[in-house]
């Protein structure tokens, strides 16, 4: 595959590329649709010359047509979250100076006023589609291809610019590392404004000649029916999805649970990512399905950087080692590389997979690099060659009484409590300790909890300085579309 270019769809011709409800589309049909759409976007021009075109489309053939059509016509694709609030959309569209928006049906209606306000042309896929494909420009690898917005869990989302070369590198490293082939079949239900769905599933699948089944949302009955039927051999999700599946098992007959688990059992790969996978969940899933979850590490700016091995030990609570073509290194606060194991440091990444720039934000771009390394802001340690994430340096590392504490580590321990369904740990200002540990806890139905009881339970399970100094019981943790807890929103609850 080394000679393949991007933008690319596998040229497997009559092989099925997409299955959407009762409709299936071959690679030949899909490529034809994309070329017609790209021709329509050009509308007589030779090249879109990096025009920013946003689209507001759920997972579907129209999503693939639009994204790849923009790429083939020489534009910059900006996929947006169909669950976004108007205020969020206004930020994205204004930030990227979008000129056109592609949306259909009910989504178009909801965008009409905003697009008029921002002087953005609003069109549908059918509006754009040409009757026949015309000449398309040659796209150089260095050209800008896509703007994705950061998750915004710690600050205002920034526009992350990837080139065609960047995207190709992000795809090919995963195709190699996870052994993608044209025999693979996978459901796609994750939001398609995020690197996980766009690159890890959709783009890798279409590059390898696999079959991708897009779903507009995570429809448990529909998807599990396909799993029971043996439709899929690869499954990728965020930890929240695996939790929801396990909770679903509690609501259905034991024989149905067995059928679903038996459907997972022969799959060649189950992957968890986008948020830390608790060790308890890792073990639960293995016990239920026999599948050892492959956990990996990535972010919008780099695609995937680290991964547990496809063949070899997948270690619970760890995200593995650098992927092919990716360099990774831990650095201390003085920018010195860390070679000792179990010494915390910031993960920094080099490679063709790293983004080009933050859109129209030279200051943030400059601040994110040091000596050619991208500074992720994530703190980790290396245990016996495997990276273990401690959390975001800005919010998941709690500096208390001279210790640097990992919020993720404390959360992982708390989640083993039989009454705790979910939890999030943050540092709060403390005159004595600098910061003290506070836990926000969601309880299982019917459970109750007093601080004194939790403190007593924590004794012997974690060091005294890691035990939360206070707790707050809440109905549900605030999360973004990928299931990550938005910790700044927790601080508003204090």
CATH superfamily of the largest domain: ANL, N-terminal domain
Average pLDDT score: 92
User: What is the count of β-strands?
Assistant: 27
Task: Describe the sheet with the most strands.
Answer: 6 strands, antiparallel
Q: Helix content range of the residues, please?
A: 25-40%
How many domains is the backbone divided into?
3
- CATH architecture identity of the largest domain: 3-Layer(aba) Sandwich
Radius of gyration: 23 Å
Proportion of beta-strand residues: 25-35%
What low-confidence regions span 5 or more consecutive residues with pLDDT below 50?
Answer: none
Stated plainly, the CATH topology of the largest domain is called: Rossmann fold
- Please give the CATH class of the largest domain: Alpha Beta
Distance between the termini: 53 Å
**Coarse structural class:** alpha/beta
Give the overall form: globular
Number of helices: 15
């Amino acid at each position: 595959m080394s000679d393949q270019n991007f933008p690319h769809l596998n040229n497997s011709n009559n092989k099925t590329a997409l299955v959407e409800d009762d409709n299936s589309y071959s690679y030949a049909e899909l490529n034809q649709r994309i070329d017609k759409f790209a021709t329509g976007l050009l509308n007589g021009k030779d090249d879109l010359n990096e025009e920013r075109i946003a689209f507001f489309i759920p997972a579907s053939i129209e999503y693939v047509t639009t994204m790849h059509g923009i790429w083939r016509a020489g534009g910059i694709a900006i996929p947006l979250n169909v669950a976004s609030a108007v205020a969020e959309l206004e930020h994205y569209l204004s930030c990227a100076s979008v000129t056109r928006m592609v949306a259909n049906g009910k989504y178009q209606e909801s965008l009409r006023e905003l697009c008029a306000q921002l002087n953005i042309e609003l069109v549908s896929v059918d509006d754009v589609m040409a009757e026949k494909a015309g000449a398309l420009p040659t796209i150089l690898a260095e050209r800008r291809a896509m703007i994705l917005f950061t998750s915004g869990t710690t600050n205002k989302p920034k526009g992350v610019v990837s080139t065609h070369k960047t995207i190709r590198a992000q795809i090919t490293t995963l195709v190699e590392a996870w052994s993608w082939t044209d025999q693979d079949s996978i459901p796609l239900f994750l939001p398609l404004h995020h690197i996980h769905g766009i690159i890890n599933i959709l783009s890798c699948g279409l590059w390898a000649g696999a079959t991708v089944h897009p779903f507009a949302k995570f429809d448990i009955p529909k998807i599990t029916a396909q799993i029971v039927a043996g439709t899929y051999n690869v499954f990728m999700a965020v930890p929240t999805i695996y939790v929801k599946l396990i909770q679903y098992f509690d609501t259905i007959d034991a024989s149905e649970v067995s059928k679903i688990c038996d459907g997972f059992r022969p799959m060649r790969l189950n992957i968890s990512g986008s948020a830390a996978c608790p060790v308890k969940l890792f073990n639960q899933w293995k016990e239920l399905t026999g599948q050892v979850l492959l956990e990996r590490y990535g972010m919008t700016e780099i695609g995937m950087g680290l991964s547990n091995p496809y063949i070899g030990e997948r270690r619970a609570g760890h995200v593995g080692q650098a992927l092919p073509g990716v360099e990774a290194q831990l650095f201390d606060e003085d920018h010195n590389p860390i070679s000792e194991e179990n010494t915390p440091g910031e993960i920094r990444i080099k490679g063709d997979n790293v983004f080009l720039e933050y859109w129209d934000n030279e200051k943030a771009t400059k601040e994110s690099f040091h000596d050619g390394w991208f500074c992720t802001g994530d703190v980790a340690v290396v245990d016996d060659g495997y990276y273990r994430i401690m959390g975001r340096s800005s919010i998941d590392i709690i500096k208390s009484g001279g210790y640097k504490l990992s919020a993720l580590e404390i959360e992982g321990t708390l989640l083993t409590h039989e009454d705790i369904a979910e939890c999030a740990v943050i540092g709060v200002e403390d005159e004595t300790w600098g910061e003290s540990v506070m836990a926000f806890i969601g309880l299982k139905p019917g459970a109750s909890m007093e601080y004194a009881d939790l403190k007593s339970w924590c004794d012997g399970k974690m060091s005294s300085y890691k035990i939360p100094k206070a707790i707050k019981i809440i109905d549900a943790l605030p999360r973004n579309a990928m299931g990550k807890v938005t910790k700044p929103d927790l601080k508003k609850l204090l």
